């Protein structure tokens, strides 16, 4: 098909990158935001603007909260479709297991539980016979936050980068997984087609024409962040391999999986099923104290990150306590398990195998739960460089072809350019519009979180319509003014978000930086101001091609008139 390997690889790099580059753009951009998802949560929910808290007392704080926990209506509806007969009244459902989770960046505590139901599943292979309930708790008071308060960072931006919020049949996971494979292929083919990687590492000529400067920026961002791009695409596939992409233990090997669970319960001493004998629970706080003592003996003192109790109220109930592993890359918790009725230690998690250790290291490297602020910012810059690399790839595709397409009266470049504008600037507008809406909508508005989500999708849809409407010059080999229009809007939305945060909460930058220092909110505001400056600068630079194009058009029209007169 092609005369050389480089030409073949160039075709693969161009077309595979174009087709799934739109998905990769979303993954990189929202992945960069997800590095500070908890901080964005603090900005979006002013009630949570206090210092991160350790796991509170279970006996005094969490136990009363769990007693008030109810099945969540959304999960009730989802479970009702999978079981035979109507579900019992939520007030009669009993908790069978509970969990509590926090991190070194979380002022609030996330809790949840499983409620048992007597219904049989419609699918005999479905053993998920319970209804979930969950809540967010202020650990200092035990009060729960409103369910209408959307955690924009951890519940919207973060899931967007790995499932696109397409949850039907886990479609989003599969699309992102395919995009990750394409990313790996694009990296390999990019190395093959660029023979001067070392020189391209130091070459950037912004004063040149658009095609040249875009190519330089595409190359430099691809080369500088090449290791980052590779390990993020690869570890993303590793994380979801066993649960989503190759769930053999839950499908083809389910019978063996169930047998393994039984054998594992016998080996570890952690009961797999209830005994049917009621039993009271001993002090969980005492178990937490014992777990901390054992961690200190192993020269790794720390706080509790995750607490789980299974088979509540039964003789076989046990408590699992996991250490917050923020002091290391590998995602491990050194779990210690206790018999709930007596508080005696059942099992202390042994050292992991080599394979398991590698898997946990790769997972931790991607999820970055560790406490290292400089490294977190490097993750952000790596994600943004990935975004720039993909965005300049779109520009290169259009710039190389728009003159040819204009002569052939083809709309190909126009379509790609409109989609590129939507995916690059339109996506940023949608995220910023969501933050602005968060500050404008009343705090006590019913369904406030759903309103914010609807506004996000609406702005993104309007950005597409605007980009398509303004893209007609591309069909004539000209510049699309939508890039400049939406850059201006990004600048204004960023400024509006900072000002509205000041007006609605009183947390302006002088306060959050100098007087009552609170870097979670200050960092978001400073990032918004930086975004505004970059957007206004980009809009100013994008005005130059438009002005030059108008001068060229005027000159051409004048020549036509002179020629017609002659």
Explained architecture:
The chain is 60% helix and 8% strand. It is of the alpha+beta class and 566 residues long. The chain has three domains: 24-45 and 151-257 and 372-406, no CATH class; 53-150 and 258-367, no CATH class; 409-566, no CATH class. A seven-stranded antiparallel β-sheet has the order 3-2-1-4-5-6-7. Helix 1 packs across helix 6 and helix 16 (482-505) packs antiparallel against helix 18 (519-565).
What is the gist of this entry?
The chain is built from 18 helices and seven strands. The chain has 566 residues and is an alpha+beta fold.
List the helices and strands and how they pair.
Elements: H1 5-34, H2 37-44, H3 58-68, H4 73-80, E1 95-101, E2 109-116, E3 130-137, H5 152-163, H6 171-193, H7 197-201, H8 210-224, H9 226-245, H10 254-268, H11 284-297, E4 304-310, E5 318-323, E6 336-339, E7 345-348, H12 354-367, H13 373-407, H14 412-440, H15 448-469, H16 482-505, H17 509-515, H18 519-565
Task: Give structural attributes.
566 residues, alpha+beta, 7-stranded antiparallel beta sheet, 7 strands, 60% helix, 8% strand, disordered C terminus
């Amino acid at each position: 098909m092609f005369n050389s390997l480089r030409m073949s690889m160039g075709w693969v790099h161009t077309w595979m990158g174009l087709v799934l580059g739109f998905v990769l753009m979303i993954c990189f951009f929202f992945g960069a935001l997800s590095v500070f998802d908890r901080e964005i949560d603090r900005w979006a929910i002013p009630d949570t603007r206090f210092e991160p808290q350790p796991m509170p007392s279970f006996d005094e704080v969490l136990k009363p909260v769990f007693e008030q926990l109810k099945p969540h209506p959304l999960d009730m509806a989802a479970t009702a479709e999978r079981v035979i007969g109507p579900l019992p009244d939520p007030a009669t459902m009993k908790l069978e297991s509970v969990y509590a989770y926090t991190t070194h960046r979380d002022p609030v505590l996330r809790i949840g539980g499983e409620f048992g139901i007597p219904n049989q599943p419609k699918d005999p292979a479905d053993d998920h016979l319970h209804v979930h309930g969950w809540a967010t708790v202020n650990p200092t008071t035990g009060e729960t936050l409103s369910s209408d308060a959307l955690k924009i960072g951890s519940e919207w931006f973060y899931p967007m980068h790995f499932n696109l919020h397409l949850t039907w049949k886990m479609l989003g996971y599969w699309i992102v997984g395919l995009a990750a494979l394409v990313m790996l292929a694009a990296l390999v083919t990019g190395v093959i087609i660029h023979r001067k990687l070392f020189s391209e590492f130091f070459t950037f000529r912004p004063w040149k024409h658009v095609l040249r400067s875009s190519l330089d920026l595409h190359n430099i961002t691809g080369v500088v962040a090449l290791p980052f791009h590779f390990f993020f695409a690869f570890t993303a596939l590793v994380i979801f391999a066993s649960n989503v992409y190759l769930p053999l233990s839950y499908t083809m090997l389910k019978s063996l999986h169930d047998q393994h669970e039984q054998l594992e319960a016998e080996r570890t001493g952690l009961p797999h099923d209830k005994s049917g004998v009621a039993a009271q629970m001993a002090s969980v706080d005492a178990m937490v104290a014992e777990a901390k003592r054992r961690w200190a003996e192993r020269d790794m003192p720390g706080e509790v990150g995750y607490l789980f109790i299974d088979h509540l109220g039964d003789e076989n109930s046990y408590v699992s306590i996991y250490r917050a592993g923020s002091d290391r890359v590998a995602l491990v918790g050194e779990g210690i398990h206790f018999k709930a009725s007596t508080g005696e230690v059942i099992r202390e998690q042994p050292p992991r195998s080599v394979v398991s250790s590698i898997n946990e290291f790769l997972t931790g490297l991607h999820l970055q739960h560790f406490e290292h602020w400089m490294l977190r910012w490097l993750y952000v810059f790596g994600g943004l460089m990935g975004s720039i690399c993909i965005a300049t790839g779109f520009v290169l595709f259009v710039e190389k072809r728009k003159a040819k397409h204009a002569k052939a009266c083809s709309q190909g470049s126009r379509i790609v350019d409109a989609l590129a504008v939507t995916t690059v600037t339109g996506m940023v507008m949608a995220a910023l519009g969501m933050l602005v809406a968060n500050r404008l909508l009343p705090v006590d508005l019913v369904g406030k979180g759903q309103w914010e989500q609807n506004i996000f999708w609406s702005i993104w849809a309007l950005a597409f319509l605007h980009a398509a409407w303004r893209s007609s010059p591309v069909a004539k080999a000209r510049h699309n003014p939508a890039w400049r229009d939406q850059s201006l809007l990004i600048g204004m939305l960023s400024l509006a978000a900072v000002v509205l945060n000041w007006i609605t909460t009183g947390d302006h930058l002088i306060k959050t930086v100098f007087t009552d220092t609170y870097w979670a909110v200050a960092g978001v505001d400073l990032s918004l101001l930086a975004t505004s400056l970059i957007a206004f600068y980009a809009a100013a630079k994008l005005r130059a091609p438009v002005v030059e194009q108008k001068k060229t058009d005027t000159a051409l029209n004048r020549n036509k008139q002179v020629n017609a007169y002659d």
